[in-house]
Design a protein that fits this description.
single chain; alpha+beta; OB fold (Dihydrolipoamide Acetyltransferase, E2P); five-stranded mixed barrel; 5 strands
């Protein structure tokens, strides 16, 4: 094998390793950032990741249930959300007489998660 062919081969291997690491990191981000609803404190900002199981949208305002590994929490969001989609939510935890919820500042669709 010539030196040029070996360098090309090494370049392809390095590229594959970089792609695999990027996909691994992308899949781990929701797991790393996720906070369990039971560990949340009122008026603090958190990240949650999970599947949207129910959604009610009125005039672009959504109230949906996020299932985070068997634990559900209500998320209020100024936008629309799709049932059965996996999302990463960032928002402020609120506890009221009606129950606890996340007042979300962002809801990002996520392709997959490694947990």
């Amino acid at each position: 094998m010539s030196k040029m062919a070996r360098n090309k081969h090494k370049g392809i291997i390095v590229l594959v390793i970089i792609i695999v690491l990027a996909l691994l990191i992308y899949g781990l981000i929701p797991t790393i950032l996720n906070t369990s609803p039971s560990a949340m404190k009122d008026n603090n900002s958190y990240y949650l990741a999970g599947k949207i199981t129910q959604d009610v949208t009125v005039n672009g305002q959504s109230a949906f249930t996020l299932n985070d590994n068997g634990k559900s929490i209500t998320v209020l969001y100024n936008g629309t959300a799709s049932v059965n989609s996996f999302v990463l939510v960032h928002g402020t935890y609120q506890n009221s007489l009606l129950g606890s919820y996340i007042n979300s500042s962002s809801v990002t669709p996520w392709l997959y998660s490694i947990s």
